[in-house]
Structures are given as C-alpha cells and as structure tokens.
Amino acid sequence: MTTPAYGLVFNRDNTDPRPAQASDLSVIGLVLPGDDADATAFPLNEPVVFDSGDPAWLPKLGTGDLCKAIVAIDDQLADLQTSARIVAVRVEAGEDDEETIANIIGSRTATTAANNVGTGLYALLRAGNQCGVIPRLLGAPGYTWQTTIVGGDIQANPICAALPSVCASLLAHAVVGGPGAGLVAATDWFETLGSGRLIAIDAWRRVADGQSTRLEDGVAAVLGLFVRVDFRHGGYPFWSVSGQQVQGTIGLKNYYPFSLIDGATTGQELLATHIGVIERGEVGVETAIASNGFVFAGVWNADTDPLWWMYNKTRGRDWAHLALLKSIRLRLGVENITPHGVQAVLNDMVAIGQNLIQNQCSVGFKVGFEANKNSPNDLRQGKFRAFFATEEPAPITQVTIDSRPNYEALVAELGALVAQAATLPAQYLQ
User: Fold this and answer.
1) Which of 134, 139, 186, 130 is nearest to 325 (CA)?
2) Please, which residues have CB within 8 angstroms of residue 128's CB and are 6 or more apart in sequence?
3) Cross-strand bridge partners of residue 263
4) If you count DSSP H runs as helices and E runs as strands, how many of each does the chain have, helices first?
5) What would you measure as the largest C-alpha separation in the chain, in angstroms?
6) 306 φ, ψ to 5°?
7) Distance between CA 411 and CA 416 in Å, rounded?
8) What is the rounded CA–CA span in Å between residue 291 and residue 268?
9) In this predicted model, what pLDDT tens digit does every residue of 92-124 receive, in sequence order?
C-alpha cells in the first residue's frame, strides 16, 4: 500500500473544462509531377512534408509543376510569413495530360516501391501517419479543368471526381481550376462538380518564367491566399480569401468584364455561379474591384445547400469539429455517465464555443442535452448524445444602401437660420 497512514495525498483533478485545442487547417497537399525533382527527397507516390521557404528543400524541387506551384504559393504569403507547410506527393508525368491525370489520381489499392498502399491522391491519406501532419487544403494545379464529351454530354474531370472522397477522409477542401475559356465553358465544367469540399475558380493568370511569361492555373496562388488569410487570423480558418491581392501576377488570360454594381457582367455571372475569379483593379473606375493590382473574388464552394455553400463556414465547422474531438476524447473511458461526467463533457464544448466567440469566429453558440435523443439503454451502454449549435459569420458579399433625401436636415437648417437672424440687432433712423 502506497497511501500513507499518516500524511498527505495529492490528486490532480481534471474536471475543469479544457480549452480549445486548435488544428492547423492551412497545411497544403499537392499531388503533381516533378520529373527533375530529387528522387531521394521526393520518392514517387510518397507524402513528403516540408516548409515551402526552407532553403534546404527548395533546390530539391526541380523546375517542373511541383516547383512552380510552390513558387506561386510563396508569392502570396503575408508580411513576416516565411513559409507554408506543404505535403507533396510526386507522381510521374505522362505522355499527355490524360496520362498525367491518371497518375495524379493514382489508386487507393496500389502499392508503392516502399510497400505503402495508395498512390497519387490516395497517398495523402497516409500523411498523418507518415508525416505527422494532415493536409487540409488540396490541389493539383493545371490538371482539374480537362473534361471530355461523350455522346454529347460533358464528363467530369477525373481528378475533380476523385477529390471529394479524399477530402472527406482528411476533412479537407480542394481548390480546383476551370478551363479559362469563358462563361459557358466554366459553367459547363462547374456543373460536373459534386461536393461542397471543392472550391471552384476560373482564374488563369500570366506569370514570369525567366525572361518570358507563361499562363498558369490560379489554383496554387489561391491556396497561398488561404495560408495568408489563416495566418493573419491566428490560424482560425473562419475568413474567406476574397478581396485579396494575388501577388506575382503579370496579367490574366481572361479580363472578364466586371462591375460592383452591375450583375450583367461576365465576372459577376461567374461569381453568381459560385466560381471564383481574379479581376484587375482600375484607377479612376469606382465600380472596379479595386483601384490597382489583381484581386481574387469568391466566397463559395460547390455545395448546393445554402447553409453550407460558403467555404469559410465549412472550413470553420471543420475546425470546431476537430477541437471537439481533441477535447472530448480525453473524457472517453475516464469519466462515467453521471451528471458530473456528462457535465464535464458539456463544459468542454462550452469552452470551445466561448473560444469561437472571443475570436469572432461565431455569432453565437448553444450546447445542450436532449432527452428525446437519449435513452436509459444508451446510458447503460456508456452512450449519450449532446448538441453543439454554432453560427459562423458570413463574409460580406453585398451591401444595399437606401439613399434618400433628408427633410429633417432642412428643418434643422431653417431653425439655425432663424436663430442666426435673431442675433442681428435692429437698426433705426437717428
């Protein structure tokens, strides 16, 4: 017996509510070819984690698609932000886009040279175990716009079709880029997307490539914008990246007509379809998106449910769910189902809700226990059901101003004039 017969016993009490434990939703997962990359540092179909600004890793990227995506991401980082966290899966480049796309998708059951299961996109599912981080912003820049026509019907891009299941497994979102061929082509492409975990853009831009320029899918740049905005908000992913300058942009493939007050413009029509765009600022044009630079606009994902079609809300809810998971798992098997034990779980949930409000990530929350969704038999088996209701704030997308005359101002002015005239002294003939 170790308990003293005559002395003191100290026990640490763990009944206090635990503070919210944050998860990093800014880690980027890229699956791209990079044939001249260092094969030792980036073995085919294996997830590799590194910091995008680390000089020890940059020379190993080669010059291909993987390197170009990292450059585009780094161009978007915030002041004093040196790197984005990257999980890269290098795949072989094919003879054509179709073959490369097949390599990017990979196989859920294929085995790599290192005897790991899952290649291409499915290698990202191993990132948590192998790299210690989970990517929650995914992309394959340049390879998500290609579609085919079969029997007169457009077929979805294979990567866009494969991404939703991978995103769901990782609790991630993917930025996917459209064809950059106008409103009709972009709309046809968007109609093939089938998940709110996809964030659609049609934003091809021109970037420098040595002494020349080239066109580049804007996916990597937008992924960098997410890293920038999350960084500026302390890692809380509850804000959109709309209204952000897209650095490193020389020009655009399509200068879509755009006006802040006219919805009958191509840029506005793409946004109404929930496709993000990059628009050019124009000095002296008040209806332009900005006075200068190249600015991204877009706050929607590809969900059809208005409750969940803003990506800052879905990313924010992912953060909340992960925080709940991290807190409540510490109660599993430790507390019993008693009023005290259940209250401890609810207190943890309250602490997370309060954290969200304090950081302006929620406009209100409520935690509760509903009798009609629980039963004595469930309690006997160690199970109960509680609810966590929160409302993530929506980004400002439209401001309507009722501009009207102000009659009260004239009444006030008349009173001022009368008072002013009353101060004038009377004058008489002497």
Assistant:
1) 134
2) 134
3) none
4) 11, 15
5) 119
6) -60, -20
7) 9
8) 18
9) 999 999 999 999 999 999 999 999 999 999 999
User: Where are the chain's structural domains?
Assistant: 28-313
Q: How far apart are CA 213 and CA 199, in angstroms?
A: 27
- Give the alpha-carbon dihedral of 313, 317, 319, 324, to 10 degrees: 160
Neighbours of 84 (CB within 10 A): 25
Lowest mean pLDDT among 8-22, 89-103, 205-219, 329-343: 8-22
| Per-residue tokens: 355 | 């954290």
**Residue ranges of E strands in 76-157:** 85-91, 137-139, 148-150, 153-155
46: which 2 tokens? Answer: 């294996």
| CA dihedral sign, ordered 127, 132, 135, 139 | negative
Burial of 244 (0-12, 13-18, 19+ CB in 10 A): buried
Q: pLDDT per residue over 185-218, tens digit each?
A: 999 999 999 899 999 999 999 999 888 999 999 9
DSSP letter for each residue of 184-247: HHHHHHHTT---TTEEEE---EEEEETTEEEEE-THHHHHHHHHHHHHHTTT---S--TT-B-T
Residue 301 pLDDT > 90: yes
